Structures are given as C-alpha cells and as structure tokens.
Amino acid sequence: MLNLLRKNNIVAGILAIIRVYIGYEFLHAGIGKLTSGGFDASGFLKGAIASSTGEHPAVQGWWAAFLENIALPNADLFSFLVQWGEVLVGIALILGLLTNFATLMGMVMNFSFLFSGTVSTNGQMILLAFFVLVAGANAGKFGVDRYAMPYVRKFMGTKRNNKTDTAHA
C-alpha cells in the first residue's frame, strides 16, 4: 500500500486533486480573512478558552492554558500567522511547491483549530492531508515540486556535505 501511494502515477494524479482541494480551502479561508478588513483572532481565542470549563469542556485545559498565556497576549501575531499561513499553505498546495512541508503546516493549523473546539471541515482536511503527507514526493509529482525538489535536495546535500567535511577537518 505504501509503495502504491509513493510510486504510482495514477495515485499521484489523485493526490494532486486532493492537494489542490486542500490548497483551495486554505487559500479561500486566508484570502477571506485578509480582505475582511481587520481579522482579529482574539475573539476566537477567548471563545476557545471559555469552552475549556464546565462539565464537558470542548477544549482541553493544557490547550486553554497555552491559548490564555501565549496566544491571547500575542493575538496580533497569531492573527497575522493564521491569515498568511492559510494563504501561503494554500498557494503552496495548489502549485505543488514544498508539498510535504505545506501539508504538515496545514495539518498543524487544522489540529490547532480542532484543539480549540472548532470541528467544521478540519477533521476531513487532516485525513486527506495524511494521505498527501504519507505519499511523500509522489504528492507533488504533478506540481512545481517535480522541478524544485532536485534543487532543494542538491542544496541540502551540499550543506550537509559541508558540515560533514568541516567536522572531519
């Protein structure tokens, strides 16, 4: 099964469709926040913190503590990160550029929304993203990764070799 996900051209096409769908969802959400005229995550953060109390809390206490002590005091930074993170992940996934990294960052955002008590399409997007992530390079085969990844590998290999050479010198 893993070999099918990572090597098959038909699966690469299906993964490209899934990748573009997830990318569109992120891009659409991010552009909506950017053009709405002042997206502010503080209301969302306060709602998530409030959902951490009561008999059946929707938000775990450890996550609420993170939101209350780190995210809420830095709501402007988190608002910026959410808006631009969604836009950049969306563009990268649509283009198939740095697909694995973009997918991972999208999953981090979706898990953050889930941890904050928002269900929506986040679970579905995480499930689809899981297949994209497990497929590795095959998910970006029909995208910019096909051309960009050889340069990235060459650059990373050169850096790694330089570190190895200097360590032995």
Quick summary of this structure?
The chain is mostly helical and 169 residues long. It has 8 helices and no strands.
How do the strands and helices of this protein lay out in sequence?
Elements: H1 2-7, H2 9-35, H3 42-50, H4 61-71, H5 75-95, H6 99-115, H7 122-135, H8 145-168
What's the rounded overall pLDDT mean?
91
Give, in order, the helices and strands: HHHHHHHH
The N- and C-terminal alpha carbons lie at a distance of: 44 Å
Low-pLDDT ranges = none
Percentage of residues in helical conformation: over 70%
Query: What about the largest sheet?
Result: none
Number of helices: 8
Multimeric state? single chain
| Share of residues in strands | under 5%
Number of strands: 0
Helix/strand/pairing class, anyone?
mainly alpha
Backbone shape: elongated
Whole-angstrom Rg: 19 Å
Folded structure, characterized:
The chain is mainly alpha-helical and 169 residues long. It is 76% helix and 0% strand. It has helices spanning 2-7, 9-35, 42-50, 61-71, 75-95, 99-115, 122-135, 145-168. Helix 5 (75-95) packs across helix 6 (99-115) and helix 6 (99-115) runs antiparallel to helix 7. The longest helix is centred in the first third of the chain and has 27 residues, at 9-35. It is elongated, with a radius of gyration of 19 Å.
List keywords for this structure.
76% helix; 169 residues; mainly alpha
